[in-house]
Structures are given as structure tokens and as C-alpha cells.
Amino acid sequence: MIPSDHFPRFYNEVFKFLATQGREALEQYWLEISKNQERHTLELFQTKGLAGMHEYWSHIRDEENCDMDLDLHDDRLELRMNVCPSLSKVLDNDAAPMQHYCDHCAGWIGPIMDKTGYHLVYDAIDRTKPQCIVRIFKDRAKAEAAEKHTALLMDWPGKPQR
Amino acid sequence: MPETKTPMRYQEQGNVHLDFHGATNTTIDYIIAHYGTAVMNDIFARVGRDVYADLRQHLLDGDRAEIAHHWQHFFERENADFSIEITPDEIVLTVRHCTAYHHVLKLTGAVSPHFCDQTIKTNEAMAAGTPFAIDTEITAPGACRQIIRRRT
Prior knowledge:
heterodimer; A: alpha+beta; Muramoyl-pentapeptide Carboxypeptidase, domain 2; four-stranded antiparallel beta sheet; B: 48% helix
């Protein structure tokens, strides 16, 4: 068994292989993971909206031991990852990190937000630091405005043009 | 459990997120469907050789106990039903209820036929070129024996 604690280091090895096949290979895999994650998220997000997303990431914050601030506002959910346990493990690793490890996160969350009609603004800030800011808006115009104030804006497969 | 001189290279604490096993199961099926079993096995071998380089180094140095510590720590964290028997000739990990397997079964209703390859292939890669072999015997769905023996 690869312990669940070590999944990010396994994931990192999968990404390194897929990167040799090209960006599209990575994106197709993230879509598969996104479908897998729908099992845990889609109904919750569709029925409870931002409150459901707050519920899901509160659970993740606890189970994955995240140092994360999570704030539910009327118009958005805002997640500030102060220390991401996933990238931290990939960096604290005897195997080399995949340079674009952070990209997978928007790669699976983005397609779910597109399905539920919400607008994701994913600022990875710096791929070498285990920090990011995720904002999810009800209103597209607010998402577009927020995108202008990001340091490293992430894309995902099928991301709508804004 | 025998004492070791240094802390384990990886020894996570805190909560566990068992749903990662579901993502592992999805990944195994996806990689095999799109790229074949040999590629999946090569990725597992990289995990065994590179991610677990420290465990492999212990085996290269003739120390078989570090893997037993690793097993004890992580199977305990996942609340598996298991035991470890240490004799002069071998170390045997007996897993009667694998948390990973049964969690995936609960999540999806079907576990990849290649799910246990993560154990078999990473064990093989960790031991490759060392004085020890690690053999994995699947004894039932979600149950196995993993045996460390000095190569003859």
C-alpha cells in the first residue's frame, strides 16, 4: 500500500510521466480526476452552492491537515492556503518535484465549477511555494475583476474565455 | 519493534485522508487504459526507487528493520488490521484488512484488478539490487502477506 499520506508523492511521479507525453496528456488526466472528485462534490455544490463548497473544503482542511483560512462571503468563497500539505510533501521528497505540480488543483476544480455555474479564480502565486489563493464567485463579472489582481492565474481544460 | 538510530524519512502525523486511495484507484485504471500496464509498473518502480530512496538505502546497508517501522507507522495510521512478525530469517507483514482496498470498495463498489500492484511493484523496486527481496502474496481481496528475506 502506498499510504494515503504519500499520495502527493505518487501523484508527482504520475505527473512527471504524463508531462513527457505533453500538456494535453496532463489535462486529460486531470479531467479524469475531476470526474472522480464529482463523487465527493458535485451534488453538494449543486444543492448548497457556496455553503456546500465551504462544507467540503472545511472537511478537507481537517483531513489533509491544511494550514488554510476559509471564508464564506455573500458573493464568494475565499480560500487562502498558507501551507499546502500536498506541495509541501512533494517538496519534502527524495524524488524530484514536477515543476507544474500546482496546476493539477485548478485542473480538477475548474471543470467542476464550470459544470455548477460558478466562476473559479485560482491564483497559484508561485509554483515553488506551498501557498495559493482560491476564490469562487457566483458572479462572472466579479471573477473577471478578481483575475486582474492575481500573481499567477491558473487555467484548466475547457476554461471559459473571460 | 527494533530500535532505529534516526527518525524515519517520512513520518506524517495528524489526520489521514483516505479518499486519496480512491484517486490512486482511478489513476491506476486510467494509466493502464491509456498507456499500458508497463508504464503503470514503471511509475510504481519510480515510487519504490526514488520516493522511498531512504528505505532502499537501509536495505542496501543491510538494515531490514526500517521497512518494518515504516509498515507499523503507516498501517497503524490507517487503522488496518495487521501484524508484523520478526524472526532471524524474515520479517512478515500480515494484512488481514487493508484499509486502502476496503475504502476504495466502499467508495466505488469495484477495486481495480491492478490495485495491489502499487504494493507489489514498489516493494520489488525498493529491494532491487539490495541484499533483500520483498515478496508480496495476495491472500484474499484486501488481504496480503509481505515478506522481507535475505536473498540466497
